Amino acid sequence: MSISDFQPLDSGLVPRFAGVPTFMRLPVAQPDAVEVAIVGVPFDGGTTNRPGARHGPREIRNQSSMVRRVHHATGISPFDLVRTGDCGDAPVNPLDLDDSLEKLRAFYAGVRAAGAVPLSVGGDHLISLPVLRGIAAGGPLGLIQFDAHSDTYDSFFGTSRYNHGTPFRRAIEEGLVDPKRFVQIGLRGAISDAGNYDFAKAAGVRMVFIEELRARGVADVMAEARAIVGEAPAYVTFDIDVLDPAYAPGTGTPEIGGVTTFEAQQLVRELRGVQIAGADLVEVSPPFDAGGLTALTGATLLFELLCVIAEGVAARREARAAAPALA
User: Fold this and answer.
1) Distance CA 168, CA 244 (A)
2) Which of 62, 143, 186, 269 could be 242's S-S partner, Cβ–Cβ 3.0 to 4.6 Å?
3) Measuring CA to CA, which residue among 203, 222, 204 is closest to residue 212?
4) 3-state DSSP percent of the chain in helix, strand and coil, to 5
5) Contact yes or no for 79/128 (Cβ under 8 A)
6) In terms of pTM, does the model score above 0.85?
7) Domains of the chain as residue ranges with CATH
């Protein structure tokens, strides 16, 4: 199948409020038919306080009907670069966290085997762990995390080692992520214990707090982030709570003093050139949203991520095609 078979519905022919809701109005597809697989992960079994992120994928699908074809600043038209489809929702078990983690791992291992780059929509931030388990079979990945929180804590409530505050500690411990190629951007907010950041610091994770981001600016910080992950494959995770709740109130753990929506767009655009093996956007909680604002923001940032991923996938495809001719 060609790229022409994976185009969004034309809003001049089918109104944005009509038709079956899919991500960016794309056709439903299987991972082995596409180069970029957009996947919903309706799971918030790792949430410790305000639930609702399980409803994020459905509402982001609705709001993504506003996505158009061409990026206004970069000129990238992702739908003309790569085969992209809505690959449905990954399987979860809302009554069994361990079963959900295994189902998600197996699903994403299948996406990797199909050769597609997964672009996932959560769901709480715990979903990043099984995604990484599924796609990091070739060795540890670099990681760029946009987030108000480090999510490298050890446990909650004494025994819970798997929740939305622990995924990246587990990922480091399991060898899924190289902590020396791991940068966190936008961190802020009071912490519950003075040692909350000790593990990440000791492991070598580069932590950029919001004050440093504001002092240095997006371009400078992201230049460092690109240097940290280097040219090897990396994962990108975008927690919507990196945004100030004035822009994204619909999330489980809001923290004031965050980035603006425009800064968020700039941060994602500065990912150009990173070899992205997969990405996710998480923690949109529609029950706490106002007028669909957070879900719309999430859908728009999903498009920003798709643009940089599509550009990279197309460039690597062209490089592979040219390699035999150069040999």
Assistant:
1) 22
2) 186
3) 222
4) 40, 20, 40
5) no
6) yes
7) 3-140+150-174+239-259+278-319 (3.40.800.10)
